[in-house]
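Morning run. Coffee first, then this:
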Amino acid sequence: MKNLKLSLIAVAVLVLSSCNQFIQLIETESVGKDAVTKEGVCENADIRINYDMWSEDGVTYFSVYNKGDKPMYIDWKRSVFIYNDWKYDYWVEKSTTESYLVPSGTGKNITYERKTSTVVAERYTFVPPHTYVSVPMTYTITPSYTSTTITDAKGKETITFSQSLKYLYPGMKKTDIPSSTKPGKNVKAYVKTYSQTESPTRFRNFLTYSFDEKFNTEKFIENDFYVSKKTEMTTKNFNGKFQKANVKVKVGSFKSKTKVKVFESPYRNGTSWYNSIVK
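And here it is:
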């Protein structure tokens, strides 16, 4: 379930084109007793958390900023991701073995010897004053899955499993949403909104931190989210307008030039993500 998330540029190059493929945009609302997340940012007097969940299936990527004038320490053993009331640990006590090359000698006589070392997973993160740290662990929030049709032995009863709103909510009608490629025009899409109690997906980010290295005095910050809206639209409308850009490709001695489409990605948001829907 854990997976590393790399930073995404604001203008995304998306390969999401198929005549039978749609995109489900998933938006969240922030709630809870601590500072509410606004535009992907949550903060109190001590700490600022920047969220970026934008990816296929969504990830819990976030960075932490120490707003104070003293070093801050984060205890990952007592910090967790909570999905629909189920706890998932950020830190697991384990060690890994890594190998590396060590040079020996000089000039033409230089040689390399392979060494190994044991690395223990970091339980505590030291954050200097007025400094950001990138959090190296993430969780996938809502894995995608495609439609699957099952027919009984007699060929009479057919059951279709899909996360498509069309199948999850039989009888749902498409509504108008603004077109991302033609200003002033509308396109058809399935739209479903949820209250906090109705939402199928709720998750929390709970962090334990301290300005005392020994954690004699510890503090907490908790951010709560729930899926508040799903919009199922065509890939064309999801991608938005595009520009063509020249790209140079080099593999060994082979060189090539090609053009790619760079999409605006108008729905990109730090507290939203998307799923591919294949019908």
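Residues 21-91+125-144+173-278 form one domain. Good start to the day.
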